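Running co-folding for 4'-deoxy-4'-aminopyridoxal-5'-phosphate.
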Amino acid sequence: MSRVYNFSAGPAVLPEEVLRQAAEEMLDWHGCGMSVMEMSHRGKEFIGIAAQAEADLRELLGIPDNYRVLFLQGGATGQFAAVPMNLLRGRDSADYINTGSWSKKAIAEAKKYCKVNVAASSEDTSFTTIPPRDTWKLDPGAAYVHYTSNETIGGVEFQETPDVGDVPLACDMSSNFLSRPVDVSRYGVIYAGAQKNIGPAGVTVVIVREDLTGDPLPCTPTLFDYRIQAENDSMYNTPPCYAIYIAGLVFQHVKKLGGVEAVEKTNIEKARMLYDLIDSSEFYRSPVDPSCRSRMNVPFTLARPELDETFLKEAKENGLVQLKGHRSVGGMRASIYNAMPVEGVKALCDFMRDFERRHG
Ligand code: PMP
């Protein structure tokens, strides 16, 4: 068996240790004679698995008791609708910060349910920056302020939680969840699709302040009603059981590594290696302003775009895959999530140096 270094933006690389454990437990989970995939979600085994996953996530992020943790379906895209449905609570508008493709999608969906005030946008820089906080035109009457902490396609990342006063802060944390410590108490709701730092696609983590639940729009599907899902331990209907189980294994793995603080150190090291190489080269270029470069998704271009295909082909021959940039921006993108080992980034840097020497 030979594993490649997989730089996919998601679904993405998972810790090998987690995959091995899942393989070992595939046919017979802890002596119960069946796979987690085959268990009733109402049985004590699965209820235990889900409760442990929640407890471990609470510990990892220090989630306060007045926040509910939900494991839902529908992806982050589902939450683009669920957030306004649950958080409007009688108000008719929300503030959104537009920092790229995923913010735009969140905005378009929210417009179906309320007035959207785009309080700040970096579209004028082609989304290579984050609008400085003191330029945001926030509405004190807004139901909430929404932002995307890491733009997976453009590769811009907020380096800190923005201060928005008393208006609840809603965050799409899909692509940098668990990559750095976060003060959950500063948020109204945090949500993240799993398929980057959490586990397989199919489960969406939602962390919501309890007092913001219970007053959804009448049209809200029961499945997206935060209060109902919280009261039912995310099991109003059949949850994505296997994805929750793998997410639980990932949480235990992150705990073993020393928690999100330890993971953050490694993420800083990996990102620094790659950006240093790009910045010190005449051949590679990062389009993103250094102040807001993502530690998770690193887009870069080659000085001669006609070499893109050769770059991808040779990278693949060297066991480095999924480096093609998103079709909307072109170039390359290396996604270096938590589970990408330091050795993987080193191998990419070595390959890039060698490629430049031969083709630059
Ligand atoms: N937001 C961000 C930041 C994302 O990266 C993605 C997926 N790549 C989404 C939302 C959409 O997530 P999903 O496919 O789980 O609906």
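Result summary
DSSP finds nine helices and 14 strands in the chain.
The CA atoms of residues 270 and 342 lie 6 Å apart.
Job closed.
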